[in-house]
Amino acid sequence: MTTLLLSLLLALVQTSLGPVLGVRPLPPPLSVARWWDPPPTPYAAGHRGVDLSAPVGAELRAVAAGRVHYAGMVAGRGVLSLALPNGLRTTYEPVRPLVAEGEQVTAGQVVAVLTEGSHCPEPCLHWGLLAGEAYLNPLALLPRPAPRLLPMAGSAAGLSPGRPAAPWRRPFP
After folding, report:
1. Phi/psi class of residue 19: alpha, beta or left (left: φ > 0; alpha: ψ in -120 to 50)?
2. Which residue of 92, 100, 124, 151 has the lowest C-beta tally within 10 Å?
3. Exposed, middle or buried by CB within 10 Å (0-12, 13-18, 19+), for 162?
4. Beta strand pairing status for 88-93 and 124-131?
5. Which DSSP string do the residues of 62-88 spell out, in sequence order?
6. d(Cα 94, Cα 80) in Å, to the nearest integer?
7. In the predicted model, what is the mean pLDDT of residues 136-162?
């Protein structure tokens, strides 16, 4: 039941965010160190965000226009929380915020710098997303990548997913 509700919330977020989509918190390509793993119940173990690999000192950008909900320390770690349109809130940690609580931010604006102190073996940004009290996959804020089509077997290029390309040969001796 919880999984169904989370799936419905995620679908709602993806359809209602129109202009919010498209701004990454880090420059591409994003490298996910740990994926979102929602807990089966509100207090169960799980991962309520995604961890994105990045070097200490990386500039972090606002994923959408909004207002700084919180900028400060939590349990000895720097945290930045942005209130987004449609009642969403996104969080970044561990960071050194560059904006103050209550300040308006624009999509793509540099809002923080990644610091040491992550729970990953290597430096990473923990990025979270909330709708009210429900945690959502923050990757839902980003546009889906465009699919890449491969040539069919027997095509002019002679390639297929299961067969490597033949070595190039001169057409005439």
Report:
1. alpha
2. 100
3. exposed
4. antiparallel
5. -SSSEEEEEEEEETTEEEEEEEPGGGE
6. 8
7. 72
Task: Identify which of 83, 50, 48, 51 has the alpha carbon closest to the alpha carbon of residue 64.
Answer: 83
pLDDT value at residue 7: 42
CA dist 158 and 164 (Å) reads: 9
Residue with tokens 């961890």: 51
The structure tokens listed for 44 are 């169960």
Instruction: Give the three-class secondary structure for 37.
Output: strand
Question: What mean pLDDT is predicted for residues 6-33?
Answer: 63
From CA 105, how far away is CA 63, in angstroms rounded? 10
Peptide bond into 85 cis (omega under 30): no
Q: Which residue bears the tokens 């420059």?
A: 27
User: Using an 8 Å Cβ cutoff, are 91 and 49 in contact?
Assistant: yes
Name residues whose C-beta falls within 8 Å of residue 36's C-beta, 6 or more positions apart in sequence.
Answer: 47, 48, 49, 50, 137, 138, 139
Residue of higher predicted confidence among 117 and 103? 103
Cα atoms in the Cβ-side hemisphere of radius 13 Å centred on 167 = 1
